[in-house]
Structure formats: C-alpha cells, structure tokens
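Here is one chain, start to finish.
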Amino acid sequence: MSKNDSILTDSYGRKHNYLRISLTEKCNLRCTYCMPANGVPLTPKSHLMTADEVFDIAKIFVENGVTKIRLTGGEPLVRKDFTDILKHLSTLPAKLSITTNAVLLDRFVYDFKTYDLQDINISLDTLNPEKFQLITRRNEFQKTYQNILLALEDGFNVKINVVLMKGFNDDEIVDLITLTKNLPISLRFIEFMPFDGNNWNKDKLVSQEEILNQVYNHFGSSEIVSLKNEDNFTSRNFKIKGFEGQFGIISTVTNPFCDSCNRVRLTADGKLKNCLFSNNETNLLTSLRNNESIEPLIQLALFKKKATRAGLTTIEAFNNTELHNNRSMITIGG
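Its structure:
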C-alpha cells in the first residue's frame, strides 16, 4: 500500500502515519494560550501553501505511509478555499479529521458529509459565557455550543478539547465531565503547554493526578471506569458508569506519551515539525516549489526527532525559555 514507509520511521522505531496540516495562521478567536494578546506577525501570503501545494505535499506523505490527516489552523474554516482543499484531500486513501473552534461549523456540515470527514475536535475551555469571552477575547460562546450540538445531531464523532489552567477553569472539571452524561462526546482535558507569548508557568498546570482527585471525590472511585488506551494514544481515557460519553486526560507535560508518538506537523508556510515542542523546522515548501524531492528532507527530519518532547524531559526544562523558543501555537497548528 505504501511506497516506502521507512522515511516516516524515526531512529527510535516509531512509525509516523498521522499528519497534522495547518491551513492558516488566522483565527476568528484570540485564545490566550494560543495567541499573544497583540497578535502575531502574519506570514506573507506568497510564503503560505496554496491549495494545490497542500495536496501535493499531503499526497507524498500518504504515498509513504500516512493514513490519517488532521486539518488545523489557526482556524481552518476561515480559509476561503477550505472546501477545495477538503475535496482534493478526500481523493487520497487517508482518513480526514479537523480541529476547529466550531464558530463557523454550521456552514460546512454539508462539505464534511460530502467529503467523508467524520471526526471533529472542538475547542471549548469553559461552560461560562463570561469566561469564554475572557479567554477567547470574543463573544461566541452560544454559537460554539450550538454548533457542538449540531455536529452531534448530524452524527459526527465529536471530541471536546479543554485546556485547563489553574485558577481559571479547573473549578469546572466536574461540570464539564457532566456533559458526557447525556451527550456522546469524548471530552479531553489538556495540560497548559508553553508557547511563545502565552505566559506559561508551571503554577498554571493542572496535572492528571489533580484532575482525577476531583473526579474521584465527586463521583466516587467505584463509578469511574478506566478505558483501554488506543494505539498511539495521547489521551488516557475514562468513563463514568451510565454516562453516554467519556473523558480523557492529555498530560503532555507531566506524563508524556512520546514512546508511541506517530504524529508530524506541517505548518501553513510549509515547514515540517517532527515534534510539537521542537523549534527545529524543515522547509518542505521551498524545495517543492523548486521541483526538488522533499522525501529526503522528510526522512532527515524524522531521523532527528528526539525521544521525548524535543529533549524537554523535565519541568525545569519547560521553565527555561531558551530551550523552547518555539512559535506561538496559532502558527504551528493545534
């Protein structure tokens, strides 16, 4: 099926069959953990991938073993040629999914169904409209929540991503899990991670242990079922007995899952990142435009991948900004 999956295998034997493609650096929200308050300098349009270039690069990855493609941003649905990109990618033998803030989701339900995109990850960090406006700097809570319900009604597989920050939304853990009582969603709590301009510090972290302590104290340990982890899992999953949905914890900082990592990221300006935390990037777009093979570049980038979080093995390393002088999250892609 694949031409040569060895170029997607790193020096630790991890095979990378999951490609996350950022379609744009633009977003219609301004989430504090993703974008600095004063925004980010936008890459000139001529330096960004065109719809055809997105497809051409994705096709090469699929030919070499990628079986899953996730479209991210910024907010991917703000890109004017999103439907064209989705249409072309749907011709590849890879499963398509998307991460979105859902503000524009209702406009694209038909496209999702037409081009067989069934898996939708939606960012929702609070159930409080005032907190939502505080963290996103926009008044879009009702639209977001309505579109989550719409996606469920239309039969999509919906996951809700919640970035937890101590003193801000960690008091909503139980309320958010209660959403899974009657809704068939997979709720995932994500640890606050360090990126340029988001004022990260370890005191804002809410660890897996702290989350589970709240859950056990409220629901009772006998009511919590630990679910089997998926292959190449990022989320350690649980379920409350009798609830329709489930919840999970993505503990990237305190309890990483690097041993089974199968993900690579392509930024909107055509740079390959072998790890979310790596500040090393490989320019695929320039070589593609020069009609040069990008496969050797992909292979070298994967070979250079570190065993754990781009070498950030401790909390102390995260605190040292010289070690993770990374882009803002919005220019990487979620």
